Amino acid sequence: MTPGVNGHPLHDILEPVWQDVLRRNPAEAEFHQAVREVLESLGPVVAKHPHYVEAAIIERLCEPERQVVFRVPWHDDRGRVRINRGFRVQFNSALGPYKGGIRFHPSVNLGIIKFLGFEQIFKNALTGMPIGGGKGGADFDPKGCSDNEIMRFCQSFMTELHRHLGEYTDVPAGDTGVGEREIGYLFGQYKRMTNRYESSVLTGKGLGIGGARVRREATGYGTAIFVQEMLKERGMSLDGRRVVVSGSGNVALYAIQKVAAFGGITVACSDSDGVVIDEKGIDFDLLREIKEIERGRVADYAARRPGARHIPGGAIWDVPCEVAIPCATQNELTHHDATTLVANGCLAVAEGANMPTTPEAVRAFAEAGVLFAPGKAANAGGVATSALEMQQNASRDSWTFEHSEEKLTEIMRDIHRRCAETAETYGAPGNYVAGANIAGFIQVADAMLALGLV
Ligand code: NDP
């Protein structure tokens, strides 16, 4: 066994797989990080089930089935030509059509989309729904763009992407920088290009164009439900707990709302400009109005909420809390942050974002006995509800909010149970990272074996 970038040794059988991933995907640090985390969990699985190794299932899983990279030309409001790069990585379709969001952010590159697509394979398997894994995006910065610019960009993006999509092929959704407005424009252009009202080719649509109730809320709600389940297992709950949520976008907002429904008090949230601290508990209605309707910033919240303070450039994880829910972006919670959180008495951490916690921080939480829920389990409620949206579109049906929320709760409890039981079975009780990686892997691996070498 040799130590790797994340410090934990790999099973001997997995070392060559890892070396191949490094060689084939140079300079893709986030992708390496995501693969490494899964490989570190799979030691006991390959030891117990050599048939996965013989069929080279892990090598196949690390290689996307297809990667599409394309130019996105568009005109800004001043008539200037602008060029961005678009991506869609169709990672694994053993369980169903590729499924995963589209991210618009200037930091987007192939390595980031591949890490997100790789994570998505296991996350989607954990939901128990028939969906494969994929992810897409563009290095487009929507900040400061007019509504017309956003629409023109979405139309150009979809003009190329549409040929790779389809309700049985690949079904994107939203992610950072892509919400209901963008999904609407993308769907409009898809409909125009194909002359088909193929509702379930995109999820996260507005309610008026085939969207599903609770999809908007699902990722944040699901993460809070996972936290509640984790705490319940230790005889605790969110009731009366001090919570800090990073970010203030779609996931953060609805995590805050659900935490409050469980009796928790979110005392701080953030954006890339700074942190807002509100000791009385974030006022969800005010924050929602500022973020979703006015497209404003957390500084605007602080200006309008008596008693709240804005700290420009502030460090969110310095705010003491019992539960931390990172909902902004990858690697936002470092080893230093983890040490601060532990010193401040943090009991539980749940990733609303994808891979927001660095490997060193995850290790610090494990050493301190802090409950830790990885994103592929904790934030799976979003994609699970997307699959429910596909189901409703296929049957031309529309469920009530209550029914949809009940389904989401059931799915999140089931994911929690599967992760906990699998961790126990493979000798890592209480380790949700191992549980999520192993349970997701086995489900996809068995489907791949059944499909033969394709
Ligand atoms: P949004 O674009 O709605 O919100 C992102 C939030 O995070 C914003 O407040 C943004 O601030 C903040 N943020 C982004 N980058 C940084 C940074 N570098 N530093 C500080 N703050 C930052 O995205 P979502 O809420 O949809 O997604 C957030 C995370 O959740 C992502 O990791 C995404 O992959 C993951 N996720 C999302 C799902 C969904 O259904 N939407 C499903 C599962 C996971 P600012 O406005 O200043 O950029």
User: Outline, from the CA principal axes?
Assistant: globular
Number of structural domains:
3
Structure class: alpha/beta
Q: Radius of gyration, rounded? A: 21 Å
Q: Span between N and C termini? A: 31 Å
Number of helices: 18
**Overall pLDDT score:** 97
Tell me the CATH topology of the largest domain.
Rossmann fold
Uncertain runs with pLDDT below 50, 5 residues or more? 1-6
State the total count of DSSP E strands: 12
Main sheet: strands, sense, barrel: 7 strands, mixed
> What is the C-level CATH assignment of the largest domain?
Alpha Beta
Bound molecules: NADPH dihydro-nicotinamide-adenine-dinucleotide phosphate
Strand content: 15-25%
What characteristics describe this protein?
454 residues, alpha/beta, Glutamate Dehydrogenase, Chain A, domain 3, Rossmann fold, 3 domains, 7-stranded mixed beta sheet, 5-stranded mixed beta sheet, 12 strands, globular, disordered N terminus, binds NADPH dihydro-nicotinamide-adenine-dinucleotide phosphate
